[in-house]
Amino acid sequence: MKHYVIYLILILGTLSCSNNEETYTLTDDLIGKWLWIKSCGGVSGACEYPKENQIKTIEFFNGAIYIEQNNGVVTTQTNYFISEVKYYEESVSADLDLGDGYYFRLTLEANNLYMDLGEFIIEYQRID
Question: Which residues are CB-contacts of 103 (< 8 A; sequence separation ≥ 6)?
Answer without folding.
Answer: 95, 96, 97
